[in-house]
Predict the 3D structure of the following.
Amino acid sequence: MNEIAVIFDMDGVLVDNLKYHVIAWLKFCENHNIRLTEEDFFKNLNGKNSQDSFKYIFQKTISQSDVQKFTDEKESLYRNLYLNHIKPAEGLIDFLKELKNNSVKIAIGTSAIEENIDFTLNHTKIKQYFDTIVHAEMVTHGKPAPDIYLKAAEILNVPIKNCVVFEDALLGVEAGLKAGMKVVGVTTSHTAEELKHTDLQIPNFIGLTYDKIKELLHN
């Protein structure tokens, strides 16, 4: 087989951090006297970029300066909450090492802001495994548009048919499928049943192998 690429979403995939994002969003909304439930988060926010998230929260278009201000506020809440708990997803480092040993190209495709990307990679010490990182500010349309994953494939110079995406959020899964890639659903945000439209569902990376990735691409 020609070159293979594996593209990981970050939040809920490389790190099992979703509950800390949820708490931060609920606290942010409480601070602004806005009602948000966990159900609202999973249905309408999980996987969205900052611009789209705050447009939903405030039910209006938000200026870029306010998006930046609100993003800084919410993400500071998140990082403070998660700092003492952050660690790589179970089995991730072994899986990354195996991919590297088999010359697989590896990328991150995330809606997260750069500060959170740096925070996550620095504290988990996994940055060296990735050939490129694509975030929302590098593309025109965020997830569920396929732009982030298509951009990653373009940078890695790997055909779309040889790319596998790892996602936990429904919007991210939609992005990967729209990109024409194989998608593995990580069940940190949704159940295996809710992610049954993906090509494979996993709770974490324990036992996942390079051969399994090749098998997915052959199907």
